[in-house]
Design goal:
single chain; 216 residues; mainly beta; Immunoglobulin-like; 2 domains; 1 helix; 2% helix; globular; binds copper (II) ion
């Protein structure tokens, strides 16, 4: 059995007293680190037998759970629940791009506002396909041959949608469809940072694709 051990090591939230009108400079931030407790699982190296000339240009590993030597878990989605006001969702950026490079998705997790267009690139020059597995969003299955450099996709429901390639079974990514900007993805040390938070008390939601959901 997998032991779930997500630990928030550090969290600070600075704010202004209740009743005061918060200024932008009064907004707080939360920083932390998500770690794995128990024996650190080894990432399994994958055998590449399809389109080897392109796909085997680098080693591929099972990327569903990536734990570093220091126990930090990469690619955990951390978000604040119930923030009202605060910064605009535009602070997440203006371009939302998923690329296919050496038969892997880049990034592995893409945080994208609801109804914003996602550009899907194919840098590989071989056939990939984009197969989404939404429960609330309509699933799509789009071939992306080498001459089709760009596909567009818009997701209109809040959901974590898995993307897979039917040709290269190891390729997997997630679209995290959101309606506010207080989302972060942990780096390879398991670290995350959320900023521009209005004064208040909030729940932190932590999600990892294999370990599931946790609120703290
Ligand atoms: Cu593919």
């Amino acid at each position: 059995m997998i032991v779930i051990g997500l630990v928030l090591l550090a969290g600070t939230l600075n704010g202004v007293p209740a009743g005061a009108t918060p200024k932008e400079s009064d907004r707080g931030s939360v920083k932390g680190r998500i770690t794995y407790s128990g024996d650190v699982p080894k990432q399994m190296k994958l055998m590449i037998i399809k389109d080897v000339k392109v796909c085997a240009k680098k080693d591929h590993y099972d990327d569903r759970l990536v734990v570093g030597n220091d126990r930090g878990i990469k690619n955990v989605v951390v978000s604040l629940v119930g923030v009202e006001g605060g910064k605009s969702i535009d602070s997440l950026g203006t371009e939302f791009v998923l690329d296919q490079k050496v038969c892997a998705y880049d990034p592995h997790l893409l945080i994208v506002p609801v109804n914003k267009q996602i550009k899907i690139l194919n840098s590989d020059g071989i056939l990939h396909n984009i197969h989404t597995y939404g429960k609330l969003n309509r699933s799509v299955n789009l071939a992306q041959p080498r001459f089709k450099k760009k596909l567009k996709l818009t997701l209109d429901k809040l959901e974590k949608v898995q993307v897979r390639c039917d040709i290269h079974g190891w390729m997997s990514a997630w679209f995290i469809v959101v309606d506010h900007p207080y989302y972060a993805v942990t780096d390879s040390a398991g670290k995350f940072s959320l900023s521009g938070i209005p004064s208040g008390t909030y729940t932190l939601n932590i999600w990892q694709e294999l370990l599931g959901n946790r609120e703290v």
